[in-house]
Design brief:
Length: about 200
């Protein structure tokens, strides 16, 4: 299992139905992973993001208290699976145990504890997608720094085309490491031929 840290970009509503989602960003590939959650969970996350602290412990506060007392705390929040639009999260405890959780509950814990969220690479490949910067700004009011964009690192000048090509090569069972190994082998063969000529 390969876990990749993602950036949290808050609660957003979209479409005429005003469905609520958390936007996570895979910065390395400049891809967005929307995690759809209930309006109730979205309201709680949004209020916590805006600094609201309930006068009495809410469910997440109670859960944190129990975890801290019994297992020594939480070390990681991961999204580990995705099937037919449903995500499954995992809360990793200090003693190594993992607890299955709804993404909304896991994200609430992550925000409360100021922990990064990690997503299984296969889930990112299946469920995330590229969104152009101008679309992100128009629909979600988010603008990423040019330094964060992978477009400057794009081999072809088209980040989406590069991402699609990379995904196709993965589906064929190849990775960048395969190309790097072949290139190193060619370089070694070239050096050997030069030495032989001398």
């Amino acid at each position: 299992m390969t876990l990749i840290p993602v950036e949290y970009h808050g609660i957003h509503t979209t479409g005429p139905e005003q469905f609520t989602c958390v936007l996570l960003r895979w910065a390395e590939q400049n891809r967005i992973l929307p995690v759809w959650i209930s309006p109730l969970a979205a309201a709680e996350l949004d209020s916590r993001d805006n600094g609201f602290t309930p006068r009495r412990p809410a469910t997440v506060d109670l859960l944190l208290d129990v975890i801290n007392r019994s297992a020594g705390g939480v070390t990681a929040i991961n999204i580990i699976s995705h099937f037919e639009g449903v995500f499954i999260a995992s809360i990793v405890l200090a003693d190594g145990q993992e607890i299955d959780a709804r993404p909304s509950d896991a994200l609430l814990l992550a925000r409360a504890l100021e922990l990064d969220v990690n997503v299984e690479e296969d889930v990112l490949n299946q469920a995330s997608f590229f969104v152009a910067d101008d679309i992100m700004e128009e629909y979600f009011g988010i603008r990423f720094d040019a330094a964060d964009s992978t477009e400057d690192l794009s081999a072809s000048g088209d980040a989406q085309a590069d991402a699609d090509f990379e995904e196709m090569m993965r589906s064929l069972g190849m990775s960048e490491l395969d190309f790097e190994t072949e290139e190193k082998d060619r370089d070694k063969d070239g050096e050997k031929e030069e030495d032989d000529q001398l």
